[in-house]
Write a structure and sequence with these properties.
The complex is a heterodimer of chains A (179) and B (95). With 179 residues, chain A is an all-alpha fold. Chain A has helices at residues 3-21, 25-45, 49-75, 89-108, 124-131, 136-156, 168-178. The model of chain B has no long low-confidence stretch (mean pLDDT 86). Chain B has helices at 2-20, 24-49, 52-82. In chain B, helix 2 (24-49) runs antiparallel to helix 3 (52-82). The chains are: A mainly alpha (179), B mainly alpha (95).
């Protein structure tokens, strides 16, 4: 393991710890961005260049910004969030997480993988024939899922009644909640 | 190989976050962490078994995007009704 590799792995673990421990939701989301950017770097190092760029564009660019947007929409007035009143359950959660980690690590222990595959740098030219070949139906299913998710997300944030059917007071209240 | 170990630890961190976080949004952040841990191991396995691992990771990213859109829509809708997204307050479905 090269020093840079070790440094990157330490950094993703450190930012991961920050994500699950920071009290302020915005700080946690920013730590998550850091985690994703380092992961993108690791992907490029692992010959998955296209995936690395997608990671930056979709995850760090779109998903976390959506998170930040919702956090600021809902918690702008509250400041500190994520305080845990169930402190007693924490050791139990830590124990369970440790169990998961040990199970996964024991599965990996003794596994001897030879990195022999020719991935052609993980470029789109290499991924495209697979995406539109063997994985075509998976791709179509995921496209359909994304469309359904968009429709559901729009339907979920609709007010129960259309805005022009509400009385003026109700409309004011609705606007306050939506802000 | 070291990437796979790191991915296992990252996944366990996500589990810990899901179990200890009180707000639904932060639970979601931890789920993202777990999805990314899975992606990291898929990319790691791709080096040993072929490009299919990377295609699978791409699908995971797309599904995570759909999940975030629906999940955050749910959180906004619940917040409108309850003025809260603390998961302990949301233990019943009654509106």
């Amino acid at each position: 393991m090269s020093p840079w590799e070790a440094f990157a792995l330490l950094l993703i673990l450190f930012t991961g710890v920050l994500v699950v421990t920071l009290k302020n939701a915005i700080h946690a989301a920013l730590a998550l961005i850091g985690n994703f950017l380092i992961l993108a770097g690791i992907y490029v190092a692992l010959e998955a260049r296209f995936l690395g760029f997608i990671q930056i564009i979709v995850y760090a660019g779109a998903i976390v910004v959506l998170f930040l947007f919702v956090i600021m929409l809902l918690y702008a007035a509250q400041g500190e969030v994520g305080f845990d009143p169930l402190v007693r359950s924490r050791p139990l959660a830590a124990l369970l997480a440790l169990g998961v980690a040990l199970t996964l690590l024991s599965g990996l222990w003794g596994l001897n993988l030879a990195f022999t595959q020719d991935l052609r740098g993980g470029l789109p030219q290499a991924l495209g024939p697979l995406l539109y070949g063997d994985w075509l139906f998976v791709l179509l299913a995921v496209g359909f899922l994304l469309m359904a998710a968009t429709v559901v997300a729009v339907a979920l944030v609709q007010p129960a009644r259309p805005l022009d059917a509400l009385s003026p007071e109700e409309r004011k209240e609705e606007k306050e909640v939506v802000r | 190989m070291s990437y796979l170990f790191a991915s296992a630890l990252l996944f366990a961190l996500g589990v810990y976050g899901v179990l200890t976080r009180r707000t639904a949004i932060l639970v979601f952040l931890s789920i993202e962490l777990m999805l990314n841990a899975a992606n990291l191991s898929l990319v790691g396995f791709a080096r040993a078994f072929g490009l299919e691992g990377q295609v699978a990771a791409l699908m995971v990213i797309a599904i995570a995007a759909a999940e975030v859109a629906v999940g955050l829509g749910l959180i906004v809708a619940i917040f409108r009704h309850r003025e809260s997204t603390a998961v302990d307050d949301l233990s019943e479905l009654r509106g």
